TrEMBL record:
Taxon lineage: Archaea, Nitrososphaerota, environmental samples
GO CC annotation terms, alphabetical: cytoplasm
Keywords on record: Aminoacyl-tRNA synthetase, Cytoplasm, Ligase
One MF annotation (Gene Ontology) recorded for this entry: lysine-tRNA ligase activity
Catalytic EC class: ligase
GO biological process: lysyl-tRNA aminoacylation
EC number(s) on file: 6.1.1.6
Name of the protein described by the UniProt record: Lysyl-tRNA synthetase (LysK)
Organism: uncultured marine thaumarchaeote SAT1000_06_B02
Record flagged with keyword Secreted: no
Length: 186
């Protein structure tokens, strides 16, 4: 699930949409889709259809709301230190050493990137989030400074970076940064 990080050149998108999920932004390109995210997904799906490729399309919102990745997300969060150490070992990047690799959608402003995950309570499957204003998002929220713990299966969000991890063979691979275009193999 992706948030709008900047307004693409030539698109008529209001600045207040920065940080919102692309699936929650009206389609600025035509009146045929419910959202900007749906419009962009339709381009991919049209190409797959033209090539005769069979797929089952699920949006990130649908995937999270149905809890299809709850167990896989749980495993990643439980093992986040190991994953962070391995990423540093392989790439030299230390950004996953001290943070959980997940941005939840703020329930107050409906934006990504305004919250940070600071803890994961494994036995309760709860994610501790801290509502902050990051330099990427300039829109202020009344909830700044609020900390809470949310049930994992009730959180929409976005992954930091990209992780392609086969977990228990459910779907075969995950591109967690591009879940808006999740394709489940048949």
């Amino acid at each position: 699930m992706d948030g709008l990080r900047k307004i693409p050149e030539g698109l008529d998108v209001k600045e207040e949409n920065i940080g919102r999920r692309v699936s929650a932004i009206d389609d600025p390109l035509c009146d045929e889709h419910d959202s900007y995210g749906e419009h962009m997904s339709s381009l991919l799906l049209d190409g797959l259809n033209r090539l005769g490729i069979e797929y089952e399309h699920k949006t990130a919102s649908q995937t999270y709301k149905e809890g299809l990745l709850t167990e896989q997300i749980h495993k990643i969060l439980v093992n986040s230190k190991k994953i962070g150490n391995k990423i540093e070992e392989l790439t030299g990047q230390q950004k996953f050493q001290n943070v959980l690799p997940y941005f939840p959608v703020c329930k107050n402003c409906d934006r990504l990137y305004t919250t940070e995950s600071f803890e994961y309570i494994e036995d309760e499957k709860r994610l501790g989030i801290d509502v902050k204003i990051l330099k990427l998002v300039l829109i202020l929220s009344r909830a700044v400074g609020m900390k809470e713990r949310l049930m994992l299966q009730k959180i929409l969000g976005s992954w930091r970076g990209r992780l392609n991890l086969p977990l228990d063979g459910k779907p075969l691979t995950y591109d967690l940064k591009r879940m808006e275009k999740t394709l489940w193999t048949r």
